[in-house]
Amino acid sequence: MKIVSPVGALEQEPLPAVGGFTSLDGLTLGVIQLSGAAAEFVDRIVERLSSDFKLAGIIRHLKDVDMAPSPPEVLADMRRRADLVISAYGH
Questions:
Q1: 47 phi and psi angles, rounded to 5 deg
Q2: In this model, does residue 91 exceed pLDDT 50?
C-alpha cells in the first residue's frame, strides 16, 4: 500500500498491502475524520458498516487541516490498532 497525500508529499515508506477481507466481522475500523460534507459522507459509511457487520471497534482521529496529510503518529497509531482505515476529503 502506498500512502499519498493531496499535497504530493510522501512522508513514509510504502506499506505492504494486506490481503482481501472476506468479512469485516470482528475487525477494528479506523477512521481519519474530516470536517464538512466529507465527514458526513464518512459517517454514513461507518453507520452502514456498523449495521452490516459486527465490528470489534471504531477508532477515530480528527484532522486539524483537511487538505494536510495525516501526521505520522496518527498513521502509526492506525497501523497498530486498526485492521482497515477509511479516510476521505471533500472540496
A1: -60, -45
A2: no
